[in-house]
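2024-03-11 09:14:02 INFO worker-7 job=invfold-0412 stage=load source=structure_tokens
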């Protein structure tokens, strides 16, 4: 077993694979209280938001970080309120700037896995940040395609808050999928001004509350941010956006990615995008 994470590239497909045998030793469930609560292993002092380096990094070089959204163990993202969400966004932006300034970081990925169904091992509200030493394939393909948000998503629109909107993608690969983006181009989190950050905070609170009301239970989800690479390139097409997806096709029932989908990278979604958008639109406070 390698002592340090090892990056390998498939010689035929060019796929990057991070071999991280050391993560087998990470605890699945804390045996002595939550390490993210004040007084715990990772947060000895009181805090509002906090970041620290991951003890079980997926990549070498201190390029993997954990972000704690709140000191409240039983909170959800939407329960943070607009002020709490804004603190998280500001911390995401600061860490993007700090990591992105490193010569060994070409792309900063902010993301969250929420719920045991998508691999989260600790329930305390938190996300992660990875600093890649290359621009990963999927973000690179989105940039090459000059990704822009739906100007008029029509019946796939879910919510709008100021300059930001949330809609269901036209061809999402997950049963529940949302795309959040500012209507005017902003390349990355550090470039987002105060009004834009406030609008994003309001939209995140709105969207995550709808998702938890959809089945009247906390929804497992994955969230990640697509933003401008930090490799020194120009990237004039970069447009900050957030993707949120859930594997549930109905309450408590996951949709599994099957062999034909993995083999061919063509997906079969049992949930109609316009239907899930209609259901989420109806879940106003």
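2024-03-11 09:14:09 INFO worker-7 stage=emit residues=285
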């Amino acid at each position: 077993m390698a002592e340090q994470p090892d990056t390998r590239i498939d010689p035929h497909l060019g796929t990057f694979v991070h071999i991280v045998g050391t993560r087998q030793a990470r605890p699945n469930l804390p045996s002595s209280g939550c390490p993210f609560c004040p007084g715990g292993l990772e947060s000895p002092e009181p805090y509002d938001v906090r970041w620290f380096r991951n003890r079980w990094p997926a990549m070498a070089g201190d390029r993997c970080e954990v972000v704690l959204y709140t000191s409240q163990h039983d909170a959800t993202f939407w329960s943070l309120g607009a002020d709490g969400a804004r603190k998280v966004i500001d911390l995401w932006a600061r860490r993007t700037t700090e990591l992105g300034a490193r010569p060994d970081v070409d792309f900063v990925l902010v993301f969250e896995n929420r719920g045991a169904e998508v691999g989260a091992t600790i329930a305390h509200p938190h996300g992660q940040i990875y600093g890649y030493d290359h621009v990963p394939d999927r973000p690179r393909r989105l940039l090459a395609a000059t990704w822009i948000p739906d100007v008029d998503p029509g019946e796939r629109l879910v919510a709008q808050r100021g300059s930001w909107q949330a809609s269901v993608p036209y061809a999402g690969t997950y049963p529940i999928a949302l795309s959040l983006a500012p209507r005017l181009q902003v390349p990355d989190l550090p470039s987002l001004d105060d009004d834009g950050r406030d609008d994003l905070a309001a939209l995140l609170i709105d969207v995550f509350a709808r998702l938890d009301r959809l089945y009247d239970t906390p929804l497992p989800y994955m969230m990640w941010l697509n933003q401008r690479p930090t490799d020194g390139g120009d990237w004039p097409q970069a447009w900050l956006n957030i993707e949120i997806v859930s594997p549930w096709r109905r309450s408590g029932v996951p949709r599994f990615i099957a062999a034909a989908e993995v083999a061919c990278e063509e997906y079969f979604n049992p949930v109609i995008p316009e239907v899930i958008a209609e259901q989420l639109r109806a879940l106003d406070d």
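2024-03-11 09:14:09 INFO worker-7 stage=report msg="The radius of gyration is 19 Å."
2024-03-11 09:14:10 INFO worker-7 job finished
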